[in-house]
Amino acid sequence: MPTFSLDDGFHDASRTVPGKRMTPPEVDRPLLAYETALGICLSAVDRCVPEETVDIAKSLGRVLRQDVTSGIAVPPFDKSAMDGYAVKQDDVKSASEKKPVVLKVVDEIPAGTVSDVVLRSGEAARIMTGAPLPVGADAVIRLEKTESAQAGLVQVYGKVDENNYVIYKGQDLLPGTRVASAGTIVEPALMGIMANCGVCDVKVSCPPSVGIISTGSELVPPGTRLQGGQIYDVNSYLLYGLCAMAGCDVSILGRVVDKSCDLLSLLNSHSDVDLLLLSGGMSVGDYDIVHETLKRAGVEEIFWRVRIKPGKPLFFGRRGSALVFGLPGNPVSSATNFYLFVLPVIDKLLGKSSWGLETGYAVLGNSMLFRPGRRKFLRAKLRRDGASHVAWVLNEQRSGVLSPMVDADILVEVPEDARMVKDGDVVKVYYL
Amino acid sequence: MPTFSLDDGFHDASRTVPGKRMTPPEVDRPLLAYETALGICLSAVDRCVPEETVDIAKSLGRVLRQDVTSGIAVPPFDKSAMDGYAVKQDDVKSASEKKPVVLKVVDEIPAGTVSDVVLRSGEAARIMTGAPLPVGADAVIRLEKTESAQAGLVQVYGKVDENNYVIYKGQDLLPGTRVASAGTIVEPALMGIMANCGVCDVKVSCPPSVGIISTGSELVPPGTRLQGGQIYDVNSYLLYGLCAMAGCDVSILGRVVDKSCDLLSLLNSHSDVDLLLLSGGMSVGDYDIVHETLKRAGVEEIFWRVRIKPGKPLFFGRRGSALVFGLPGNPVSSATNFYLFVLPVIDKLLGKSSWGLETGYAVLGNSMLFRPGRRKFLRAKLRRDGASHVAWVLNEQRSGVLSPMVDADILVEVPEDARMVKDGDVVKVYYL
Q: A384 has which bridge partners?
């Protein structure tokens, strides 16, 4: 069985000898468990974003803030599902190709009009798809099973089978039927269904406002020329994309070097956002500087560091009505924290009925060894093998290496205490 | 084995007795096979929409019209993956918790700066995450495995294990590596990766312009009060949502009654769209009127009617540079035709590398009987049962009934000649 080790040095706390100079006392605090940290993040969301009313044509992808109920029966009348002739079933029960039944044609009913005839035995009405059945008719014979050789008469070549081509009033929706609940994301089919009920506008959530700040003296924006020791700012763009996809109104507020004054003035000039995403400066060596700045800027710390990998040095706090995430500078860790913690918070702010990535199960395609301790979230590719889904964990899991991230379409969860997972194991997966 | 019949009267052509008055001669033409019709639609797309250059922050969901290649090595230098001390591996190979190795600290290297020291045996440099390794160093010892009890010296408590915490220059990307190909849809991870390469803007497709027209005297817009025989216009909103989701710039051009002059003037005043979607008026009884109007408006017919269910009366044509789809008035049929024919055309116009819905396989959860003849596309729900995916075909398949459509997340394909499918069968599915 081929295995590869994904361990890049998770350390058992008992073996740690902290450096005296650079390590703040907080490092000794126990790390939070994943579920505990997520629970704290969600509890901190004590409101939804405001709502607005939009035309249903503009509601795609928005989150409903109201139940949508049909005020009418759909269809609003007994409707012909076919072009043909409205008849009484009893009149044609003996009809066959050899022995057609002849009926008198008493009306012609286009869609959009109501016939004023009352159909009697021996009579038929020419009817178009979507037109209301005349009173007295209980079935429609398809045009292809008829022949109108003589003016005013029609020959019917078949009886009514299990399908009478009538869609009854209210058969699709009864008046008062709820077609969607608050918290639902509007999809094209729902747009059609809302129109079907006569609903022309709906209340939806306004997009949460998110401000993104990258910290790090080494960061420069793409498009500039790198000097020694510099790298491009990845997180601003990665987080912009992730937040925009989650339905937010995103602003890249800026890049700040690790000096507290820059960060402080940025925080002060953007105090009205719903969510503030900082990245960088959250690891052990940097923590004291950024932590001190956040404190002085009025950011109340709620927690720091979670027992997961990648993404351990997550900071979560609050500043007025804004929730503040301090994400690791490493883009892979940053994205993992986004999916695990920030996305559920955005979803709850939006008033969605479920929060965070959809989860499921897959069969593992490869085997791996681990050092136990933290919950792992491994980037993987889901391949369909017939009807079953196989998760292939990507070879490159080091959080410093970003490029394999485009190949990943799931995260595979590995429990804290696992030392090994084997091909064939069923694992929990998070769909990206 | 419980089965239910989904047949609502597909008729064998040999048994058809066409009505003499209402049926145009075209009805006798053989129906096109699904693949033939799709092939014709795709062949008619002889160009892509124009391209534009956008900032990478604005590129989410857009289709690339260029390959994206890294102009630099990523990372651009040998980079420390941890806070700690840059060392020579040979110096610390005997280090342990009981017998630490003492090294002289010759520099401190924050991220964003380049050290000018050349590390010699017995020396270490304090280094921060993301900073370039000094010349002469070949590993980083994590801060937690060190202690700096005495100024200018560091005690190292562990040797370098399989992970030396160095990310080498070009280890993520070598200069010239292609990170994305033309035709790719930009996702958040790719936004980050493009930034990582220093790319600040990219060429993407402009959104295809789509005009939507509903035909039918019975249609009124939602928000108005229904009169006898009237129903709400569903297709304008359903198709708006489907096209917007596919990346188009959509306009609802209007609703026209079945009179040719209205349709003609609408077509004439919107001749600049890439795609024109008409719905309604495509079935046998209506066909002659709309067909005649389209002809007079300069729409060249390419085909009419496909051997599928639902959605048989599909019209495809061309008017100048605009491709014209005539979709059935029935919303379910209209949406099915959208997914099977219109979406691939939009994808090809956008320059995407793959066209149409993603397909796969699933195990069927229920059994059904059919009359053979047309390829069926059944609305179904995919349920995950452990690692395997089970397709449950919805009970309600009549194309006149719209509301179950929100429950469907796949279409299950049933071959033309199938008389039955059974639970446990592996079937082809289209992911909605």
A: A389
Q: Are B115 and B78 in contact (CB under 8 A)?
A: no
- Chain A residues with CB-CB distance to B305 below 8 A: none
CA nearest A112 in B: which residue? B218
**Residues 337-376 in A contacting B (C-alpha not used; CB under 8 Å):** 360-363
Classified as helix, coil or strand, A32 is strand
Give burial (CB, 10 Å; 0-12/13-18/19+) of A384. middle
Helices and strands, counts by H and E, chain B:
7, 29
Give the pLDDT of residue B397. Answer: 77
Please state, as a whole number, how many other Cβ atoms lie within 10 Å of the Cβ of residue A253. Answer: 20
pLDDT digits (tens, 9 = 90+) for B389-417: 899 999 877 777 788 888 899 999 999 99
Q: What are phi and psi of B369, to 5 degrees?
A: -110, 150
One-letter amino acid at A88 equals K
**Which residues on chain B are in Cβ contact (under 8 Å) with A130?**
216, 218, 231, 329
Angstroms from B259 CA to nearest CA on chain A: 12
Residues of B in Cβ contact (< 8 Å) with A76: 226, 230-231
* pLDDT tens column, A182-214: 999 999 999 999 999 999 999 999 999 999 999
Q: Considering the entire predicted model, what is its pTM?
A: 0.91
Search chain B and give the residue with CA nearest A426.
B387
Task: Give the β-pairing of A375-385 and A231-232.
Answer: unpaired
**Domains identified in chain A and CATH numbers:** 31-49+206-349 (3.40.980.10), 51-74+171-205 (3.90.105.10), 79-167 (2.170.190.11), 359-431 (2.40.340.10)
Contact B194 A233 (CB under 8 A): no
Chain B residues in contact with A179 (beta carbon < 8 A): 403, 406
Q: Which of A231, A284, A358 to mutate to test the interface with B (most CBs of B within 10 A)?
A: A231
